Amino acid sequence: MREPVFYLPCERNLMSDFTNVTIPEYNLLIGVAALDGNEVPNKELVERFGLKTRPQERQRIKDAKKLLIDGGQGHPLYYTLTDPGWDLVDDLLNGDVVPKGSLTGRSARVLHAITQTLAAANRANGSSIAGVVLTRIKDDTTPDAADEVVNILDAADGDWVPLQELRSELAPIDKDEIDAVLTELFEAGIVQVAPEENRASVTPEQHDAGWFLGGTKVHYVMKGRNV
Fold this sequence. Notes:
By secondary structure, the chain is of the alpha+beta class. It contains ten helices and eight strands. The strands form three sheets. It has a three-stranded antiparallel β-sheet with strand order 1-3-2. A hairpin with a 2-residue loop joins strand 2 and strand 3 (75-81). Helix 1 (23-34) crosses helix 4 (83-94) and helix 1 packs parallel to helix 5. The chain is elongated and about 75 Å long.
């Protein structure tokens, strides 16, 4: 699922001379972005995320004009993202640029921090992660399909809704389209699902209305974070 962007994107091409991002460079760029990107002390990156970049890693990003770096030679270091640096952060978060190597524990810490920053921006804009997900689902499906699914589940007030009943209420929306909506809602943690416990009691109608998820056919859905 794509994360929302909270600023107007400028017209640009990928910086082809800087798509070969290393994991330490990735951690530094995302860490600085998570701390608002302006005059971020190196000391705070070390304390918050355990980031300790080598001079050559810092210099490569500076030479590519992604970061302004103040200090050094015995003075505290401060980092500020440039506009091309913010573009690269956007590319990294969207998956348009993939860093070389495997993400580390430090990567997990900076990603957690940037996720909190994005969630706070959503709240400040009067939105939520769930709202953004639903908006994207609506863009990819019949205009009212996502809303109708959520409205039916909300009306159940925390009770399980049989898929047979859900599909009946959503007719004539296509079964595959409903499945696509439910899949995205499940992956976003917005709904829970469950199979019929007594498989021997499943009727042909229940079987036909079932939905395959991870190799298991489920028959019930409920609003609420999946666990």
